[in-house]
Write a structure and sequence with these properties.
Elements: H1 4-23, H2 25-28, E1 42-43, E2 46-47, H3 53-69, H4 74-86, H5 90-103, H6 108-120, H7 124-134, H8 142-154, H9 158-171, H10 176-189, H11 192-203, H12 210-222, H13 226-234, H14 239-268
Antiparallel strand pairs: 1-2
Length: 273
């Protein structure tokens, strides 16, 4: 019978796999974000999360030129920061959002994006502060509620996070980004069946975006159903990108199994004095 420690360790391994799949974006072209979903900046009408690594890099350069001309334009700055994040430059992404937050200290959208940039850099306490400062208790913004929940999830406060996800769903029923984030909360815990239930509900919503469906492909793949995961991913990505992502996931899971077997063998060895 698995202990809580075993379940928690499994959840952490799954979370690492999810993160590593996101990091593979630069190789395979998948744009799954770190435990977050929702709208992301666009360049040339094509979503960043559907671009290849080369396309993201080119889009980042183009957005950088626009940003240099008008750094206080909220749309340009937030799109540039999102592109930088996907292009692997988290530090510069945060610098862009920090400057924008100084220019718009009371703008809820800017503070929310700033909070997400802080969280992406592992500065969770500061991220939580930014998101909470942006919130207006008497007129709560469901996006900020969901963002706060995602940060709490990364801090390991899953019960508080899920309470906030459900509050966000009360404010915005059946929103796919909130449902997907709630599903990712269960991925962090290692409860993939529950995660898939929320992910499927999210993907079935008429306004679900590419990243929501990619998260569904991820959680299906984490359960070893690779053919089904590739089929789901192929709806969003090119066949080559979908195959590359699933191949990367297979590799990550195989490495986890290998490490697990080595640990089990090590535990079975007799103790030596």
């Amino acid at each position: 019978m698995p202990t809580n420690r075993t379940v928690n360790a499994r959840g952490k391994r799954l979370a690492i796999t999810a993160l590593m799949l996101a990091l593979a974006a630069g190789v395979a072209g998948c744009g799954t974000s770190r435990m977050t979903t929702g709208s992301i900046g666009r360049s040339g009408g094509k979503p960043l999360e559907s671009m290849s690594a080369g396309e993201v890099h080119n889009a980042t350069a183009a957005l950088g030129q626009s940003y240099a001309k008008n750094p206080n334009d909220k749309r340009i700055a937030t799109n540039f920061a999102a592109a930088l994040q996907m292009d692997g430059d988290a530090d510069q992404s945060l610098a862009v959002m920090r400057k924008l937050a100084i220019a718009y200290p009371k703008d809820r959208d800017v503070l929310a994006a700033y909070g997400k940039a802080l969280a992406a850099n592992g500065q969770f306490d500061a991220a939580l502060d930014a998101v909470r400062r942006a919130q207006t208790p008497e007129y709560p913004d469901w996006k900020l509620v969901s963002a706060e929940a995602a940060i709490l999830d990364q801090l390991g406060q899953k019960d508080d996070a899920r309470q906030l996800y459900r509050k966000a769903l009360e404010l915005k029923p059946n929103d796919p980004s909130v449902l997907s984030n709630l599903g990712m909360s269960y991925v962090l815990e290692g409860d993939l069946r529950t995660a898939e239930t929320y992910m499927r509900s999210a993907a079935q919503q008429p306004n679900a975006d590419s990243r929501v469906r990619q998260n569904l492909a991820l959680v299906v793949g984490l359960q070893g159903r690779f053919d089904e995961a590739e089929k789901i991913a192929s709806q969003e990505l090119s066949p080559e990108q979908a195959q590359a992502n699933v191949a990367y996931l297979r590799q990550m899971l195989a490495q986890q199994n290998a490490w697990g077997q080595l640990k089990d063998q090590d535990k079975s060895k007799p103790a030596t004095n």
